[in-house]
Amino acid sequence: MAEAILSLGGNIGPARETIDRAVKVLCDGERVRLLARSSDYRSAPWGVIDQPPFVNLCLIVATTLSARALLARAQATETALGRNRESERRWGPRVIDIDIIAYDNLVIAEADFALPHPHALERAFVLLPLDEIAPDRTIGGVTVREALARLDITGVERLPPR
């Protein structure tokens, strides 16, 4: 089994409930088994700032799926929950977004798929939740804790449990 790190977020509709549904759809307990889940975090928008704040979290999963098959499953989950990539603005509002941050120590550099995620180490909304569940995990030769120490975490706050 491979171990993958996923980042989930959304800012349209009941984001926390949608993310909960995404985790249930994605993690079937067989092909994708949930190992750890961070708290939910509220974060200021990144990229396009004229939109509502996001809710974000990170997961660590064990999977029998290949990296590409996990990506396909994540995208199918997004579609099932109402995401329509065709009508979205890049980095704009979305119902759900699921990114693969890392898949074991696999490195992929293709036009439509890159691992580790090329922007993960620049984003506090990824690293702060990930630091909660895997601070010593290395991504791109840097630990999560080290990468997070380089970032401004202003605008990212842990939400209270429900």
Instruction: Give the overall pLDDT as a whole number.
Output: 93
Q: So what's the oligomer here?
A: single chain
User: How much is the radius of gyration in Å?
Assistant: 15 Å
Helix content: 25-40%
Looking at the structure, what is the overall shape? globular
Q: Helix segment count?
A: 4
**Strand-and-helix sequence, N→C?**
EHEEEHEEEHEEHE
Q: Report strand %.
A: 25-35%
Largest sheet: 6 strands, antiparallel
For the termini, the CA-CA separation is 31 Å
Q: What structural category do the secondary elements indicate?
A: alpha+beta
Low-confidence stretches: none
Total strands? 10
Explain this structure:
This protein has about 160 residues and is an alpha+beta fold. It contains 4 helices and 10 strands, in the order βαβββαβββαββαβ. It has helices at about 15-25, 65-80, 125-135, 145-150, and strands at about 1-10, 30-35, 40-45, 55-65, 95-105, 110, 115, 140, 140-145, 155-160. The strands form 3 sheets. Strands 1, 2, 3, 4, 5 and 10 form a 6-stranded antiparallel beta sheet that branches. The mean pLDDT is about 95.
Task: Provide a quick synopsis of the model.
The protein is α+β, with helices and mostly antiparallel strands and 162 residues long.
Question: Layout of SSEs?
Answer:
Blueprint: E1 2-10, H1 15-26, E2 32-37, E3 41-43, E4 54-63, H2 67-80, E5 97-103, E6 108-110, E7 113-115, H3 124-133, E8 138-139, E9 142-143, H4 144-149, E10 156-158
Antiparallel strand pairs: 1-4, 1-5, 2-4, 3-4, 3-10, 6-7, 8-9
